[in-house]
Amino acid sequence: MSRLNRSLLHLGQALHARAYRFTSVTPLTQQRVNARAQNAWATDLAGVFGWSRPFHPDTVGEELFGLMDSAGVLHSTANGGWLSTVRWSSLDDELYVHSCYPTSQADAVFFGPDTYRFAQAIEQHLRRQPPEQLRRVLDIGCGAGPGALLVARACPSAEVLAVDINPLALEYTDVNARLAGIGNLRTLRSDLLASIGGEFDLILSNPPYMLDPQGRLYRDGGGELGVGLSLAIIDEALAQLAPGGCLLLYTGVAMVGGRDPLLEYCKATLPGQSVVWSYREMDPDVFGEQLLEPGYEAVERIAAVALTITRSRREEGGWQR
Predict the structure, then answer these.
(1) Most buried of 92, 148, 223, 242 (most Cβ within 10 A)?
(2) If pLDDT is split at 50, 70 and 90, which confidence band does 314 have?
């Protein structure tokens, strides 16, 4: 662990000791709340580390300011204040470090409402697939690591691998795992499953699903209206599911003329592959502000969906579901 990451871990521990909590909201909500006149400056820790507002050193105190300086997460502003270049968000009883608002950097690591829905999908799945059945677990595009950490905590005997193409995401995942006291998780840089071998009992993913002219890793899904990465994950994950293993994909889909391109792909490609699958909309309308962006002129809505694909078990004499 680098010196900067160790200092970032110490900052997270100090915030945890102060019972700091913050629920991340959509970028549009963040923008609107921060635009209120009374929110021009942070007046508490949530304003500094959650809302990403400028602050004066005495707002955080000498200890936290020193930890921020040691971690390299202080940015001076033109009006004599400071900004934190990281945010800390709550999920259950844990804190997660991720990128500050606005997430304009090419390597930004996002955490928000999708993260909470992804966590709900994982928790629901773990009630159906007992933890003792999970020996190897993979989180593709782990971001800040919430998916991998949830499974690692629920399945302490499992080997959990968190992969991402973004090195900053892997650094934050490592900090968050250490902060949570998770010891059965390791990180690896990989473009989807390009660097990953072997079979897995559970593969998770919450990939980006927007069109993004800036090509930001956390946001740009590629392909038709951002569905490209989701399709690629389905194809690559199926090849590395163990018998009885499951892919849990949480993503967003742009609907045009009543069409769901992800559901259509599943119906066209999954039959005959010795799998059973289910598909459901978790939220029929998310990130509506995206419909104002170029390329979305014909899109009616963006739905948050959860897809599970389970490989049949090999048994003597054939396959068994």
Answers:
(1) 148
(2) low
The pLDDT tens digits of the residues spanning 31-69 come to 999 999 999 999 999 999 999 999 999 999 999 999 999
178 in Cβ contact with 94 (< 8 Å): no
**Cα–Cα distance for residue pair 282/321, rounded to 1 Å:** 25
* 3-class DSSP state of 244: strand
User: CB 63: neighbour CB atoms within 10 A?
Assistant: 12
The single-letter code of the amino acid at 52 is: S
Handedness of CA 193, 122, 98, 137 (dihedral sign): negative
The hierarchical CATH code for the domain 113-320 is 3.40.50.150
Q: What is the pTM of this model?
A: 0.93
Residue spans of beta strands (DSSP E) within 21-109 = 74-76, 82-84, 86-91, 94-99
Question: Would you kindly state where each structural domain of the chain is located, as residue ranges?
Answer: 3-99, 113-320
Give CA–CA dist 287/222, Å, rounded.
17
